[in-house]
Model the fold of this input.
Amino acid sequence: MSPEKHLNDWHTNQTIAETISPLLGQLYRQKGVEVLIFGKTLVNAATIDIIKTHRLSRHYCQTALTPAQTLPLAQAINELPLSPCKVDIGQLAAKYWASHSDTDALNDFLLSALDGAMNGEGVGTPKDVVLYGFGRIGRLLTRLLIEKSGPGYPLRLRAIVVRGGKSGDLQKRASLLRRDSVHGQFNGSIVIDEERKAIIANGNYIQLIYANQPEDVDYTQYGINEALIVDNTGVWRDSEGLSKHLASRGAQKVLLTAPGKGDIKNVVFGVNDQVIQSEDRIISAASCTTNAITPVLKALNDRYGIESGHIETVHSFTNDQNLIDNFHSGERRGRSASLNMVLTSTGAAKAVAKALPELAGKLTGNAIRVPTPNVSMAVANLNLSNSVERDELNTYLRDMALTSPLAGQIDYTDSTEVVSTDLVGSRFAGVVDGAATIAQDKRCVLYIWYDNEFGYSCQVVQCMEKMMGVDYATFA
Done:
């Protein structure tokens, strides 16, 4: 292939991707149809993102799909009377072009493949969401909910509750949403309504409510009713404490973004989200580490059986630690987070059993906080019931990441050059580093990367959707 052809092919793909982009926007904004390519969302995707996502198809097909192959599907799907759903255009295109050389049969193919999505119910009544707390997770949840907002998405971020209310507080909160040292600039426009104490982000009107206690808030005076309150503070972690939210007028359910104590259901989406029932009032989305390791452990236990193991978490420092040496009630956490590796405890290994009871009592765990601001790693040293070889294990985990029911939680990389900053913004609960896998007889060591902020926030959003009855089918 000549050098000129490489550039010409790129320009062709770029032109086609620019044609695809508005079609994706119309499907999502007008019909509530989220388009995917092999599980990767294309909502708000830029032209380059569309091209890069097509490249992922080489892991699933003998040859990579091109934008020219998915464009006719996007055009045809736009003409169909679809109800809110998810459509994996990558998988559909791969199936179609495997047995067709032109588009003559495309409409019949799509009518059959998308039959269950035709002329169904619409989005229904919007469902109110309130974020209680506006720290690292709260601001990322805000970004994700705004990214997904539209006529086809029923969850509406209506308010954020914080302490304070001093002069300049609103501007500071908006600035922290607009600029993030780890995750970059907010993708869109943020306007402040000083008089009404609100932030308008990409057209989403978000009321800031100042309160010191959950029960002090009357959400109904802001037009908020039957709301899901997402507690990002971690101050209350048992039923008694979190029930304070339910004492507020306009609040219906509570989701905790930390491990719950006592009888609270700890949910790792994709593993045990089926335990969420419509009558549940309080649910926990567990911890970032528990979400990262549990899907991989489930996949491994299902195939090979896990007899015992130890999970060592190499975790980025958190806001709970001190920048320089100072008093801290926790052991070792008073020492400078920016200068030290800090050995500490983690309940993640034990918490796995709440989502995966068959591993109860089989795992131990510890954590080392390290001087990085985001992205962590879990090292799982496991004793298995059956023997396994490294290549066999990696092939299995790669397949789980590509085509299994856990594909939305597990990602896989075999690059020998990946480092932690490459995983910033990963939407997966955990990413298996296949290049580092060790396996011998009935033992293995797995290295699992995870964006402990963004990846976890994506898991939380899926729990929010499940709690509020938002469960759109995927057609592929």
In short: The CA atoms of residues 76 and 346 lie 51 Å apart. The mean pLDDT is 93.
